[in-house]
Every structure is written in C-alpha cells, then in structure tokens.
Amino acid sequence: MENLLKQILEGNKRSVGKAISIIENDLPEKVELLNQLYPYTGHAKVIGITGPPGAGKSTLVDAIIQVIRQTGAKVGVIAVDPTSPFTGGAILGDRIRMQKHALDPNVFIRSMGSRGTLGGLAKTTREVVRVLDSMGNDYILIETVGVGQSELEIINVADTIMVVLHPGGGDTIQAFKAGLMEIADLFVINKSDLPGVEKLIHEIEMLIEMTKINANWKPPIIKTISTNQVGLEELWAALQNHQQYLIERGVLQKQRTSFLKREVVELLHHLFQQKIDVAIYTQFFNKELDQLVNKERSPEEIARIMFEKICPMKS
Ligand SMILES: Nc1nc2c(ncn2[C@@H]2O[C@H](COP(=O)(O)OP(=O)(O)OP(=O)(O)O)[C@@H](O)[C@H]2O)c(=O)[nH]1
Ligand SMILES: [Mg+2]
To answer: What is the band of 94 on the pLDDT scale with cuts at 50, 70, 90?
Structure first.
C-alpha cells in the first residue's frame, strides 16, 4: 500500500490504473487507499463535459486535451458511458479517438461503464477523480452523456460544467428536459459547420433567460468545430473566465464544500441502509410481524420501535 501510494503521487500510470481497478472492483484495500490519497487532492480543476449522444463530446475532449497540453499542463480524462457494461477503457470509439494522446506521459485516459461500479457510477467517478487528482493532474475532464438525472449526478463533482449541443438535433428541448440548462456554466455549440447554428443559439439564449438562477454568472455560448480545432481558443478563454469567477467570488470553495457535505450525507445513508438491512435479517421481524398482522401495532409504530432499537438515541 505504501508503495502504491508513493507511485500514484509520482504519477505512475500503471499504479494509477491499479488503484482504479481496486476502486472499480470494490476491493478491501479501497477505503484505506482513498483515505491515504485524500490529503493530496484538491489541486486539479475538474471540468464536466456533458450533452446529448453524438454531440461531439469525445471529439471536443480530444481537442481540449490538445489545448491543455500546449500550455504544458497535465490532464486526466474519465469518459463515463452509463449505458455500457464494459469497464477498463473498453469504449472503443473514445479509445481510438484519443489514442494519439495515449503515449503522452502527461495525459491519462480512462473509460468507465456501469459494470464493476458497485456503489454506483457517481460514487466511483468521484473516487477515480481523487486518484487522478493526487497523481498530479492540473485538469480532470469528465465526459458523460447528459440524458437524465443519474447521468447528471456523475458530473456533480465538477467545478465547471460544459454542455455540448449540436445544431439540427432538436437538442434544446431534450437538453431542457434533461435538466442541462440549469447546470451549464458554459454552452458549446459544436458542429457549427452544420446548418442551424443561429437558430440553436437563439433558443439557448431564450432558455438561459427563462431558467436563469445565477445573477452573477451568465453562461457564454461558444461555437466550435471540434474536428478541426475551430473555436477552441474562445472556449479555453471562456473556461478560464469561469474558473476566475469561481475563485474571485469564493464560489469554488463553497461549491466544493457543498459537494463534500452531500457526499458525507450520501455515505451516511448508505451506512444506515446497511445497518438496517443487517438488523432486519438478524434481530427483528418475528414478534413485530405478528403484532402487525394482529393489528396490535401500525406499520408506523413498528418502524419507529425498530428504528429506536437499531439507532438508540441514548446509549
Ligand atoms: N461536422 C462535424 N462533425 C463532428 C464535429 N465534432 C464531432 N463530429 C462528429 O460527430 C460524431 C460524434 O462525435 P463524438 O465525439 O463521438 O460524439 P459524442 O458526443 O462523444 O458521442 P457519445 O459519446 O456517443 O454520446 C463523430 O463522427 C465525429 O467525427 C464537428 O465539429 N463537426
Ligand atoms: Mg463520447
């Protein structure tokens, strides 16, 4: 463990891969590993990239990697495909697309599917982010398709969220329904070489007005052709702007603190759940069931009695 920790902190890709496998397979040493890594996290800027299927997210990620590398910074990428049962970098398209970076020691790419992520994809993603953070990445990009609530939970760890749309897909209504409008810090109109760009921008602007929840930050709309690296400079500038806003207004710290709080609450729920499950199988539900069936006590009363036994208020 000592050795693994040291090698991760040194940025050793093989060790990082090993750590991610430990996480994905929920091996016994996982908790200890994450505990030890935790003090070394917090440096990386985490960027979520989401949007409907086929909008060009992976191509855009690839283009952003290139920009990041030009600045000399180090980048980790997590491509999450909730619909894929595969893990360990098996999303073929993404792999081929990003392969040209695979030999770069300062780029680490990992694909994740739903298989082997026992605690849920959002929890696993959060843990993998910590590994990539502690290995010394300056940026961490998380790509996930934005089609529903559970997918959006995956990027709940991101400091900045980019929503990628493309013209001609009827995307705005879909994106609106999926809750993407509210979470976007930045809109990217990718495939802006195709017709319908101005119409899409207009629709987004209207929706921004309608759903505006933050008076201090209006999400910019950036046009890109990610296959040709067009618009990437503007996108990068917009991203820097947002990061600066986060820091100057103290939003970054607040946001991260609230993520941490939510995470602990989630973990507590999980621990309680386990405790209840164990208690039900081992201690309860003989006498109580009889009482229920005989109408001596209501379900509400039984639940409260059992709760008091499982989690006594006074010890
Ligand atoms: N014309 C055009 N095509 C693009 C552009 N960007 C990406 N594409 C193409 O769009 C297709 C989908 O791109 P991906 O990057 O795989 O899209 P994605 O959003 O990652 O797709 P999923 O991960 O499957 O949801 C590919 O064939 C890309 O070559 C662009 O700017 N213009
Ligand atoms: Mg993709």
So the answer is: low
Q: Which domains does the chain have, with CATH numbers?
A: 2-249 (3.40.50.300), 263-310 (no CATH)
Q: Are 111 and 89 in contact (CB under 8 A)?
A: yes
Q: Which residue out of 49, 50, 58 has the highest number of ligand 1 atoms within 8 Å of its CB and is therefore the one to mutate?
A: 58
Is pLDDT at 89 greater than 60 in this prediction?
no
Ligand 1: does its nearest atom lie under 6 Å from the Cβ of 54?
Answer: yes
Q: 141: which strand partners? A: 47, 77
> Ligand 1 atom closest to Cα of 224?
31
The overall average pLDDT reported for the chain is: 88
Beta strands in the chain (DSSP E): 45-51, 75-80, 107-112, 139-145, 160-165, 186-189, 221-223
Above 60 in pLDDT, residue 62? yes
Cβ atoms 61, 77 nearer than 8 A: yes
Indicate whether residue 58 lines ligand 1 (CB < 6 A): yes
Closest residue by Cα to atom 14, ligand 1, is 56
- What pLDDT, in 10s, does the model give residues 227-262? 999 999 999 999 999 999 999 999 999 999 999 999
The ligand placed nearest to the CA atom of residue 195 is 1
Question: Distance between CA 183 and CA 101 in Å, rounded?
Answer: 29
Residue 192 backbone zone (phi > 0: left; psi -120 to 50: alpha; other: beta):
alpha
Q: Mutate which of 50, 57, 59 to test ligand 1's pocket (most atoms within 8 Å of Cβ)? A: 59
Question: Residue 87: pLDDT above 60?
Answer: no
How far, in Å, is the centroid of ligand 2 from the Cα of 116?
20
Q: What are phi and psi of 111, to 5 degrees?
A: -100, 145
Res 92 pLDDT > 60 = no
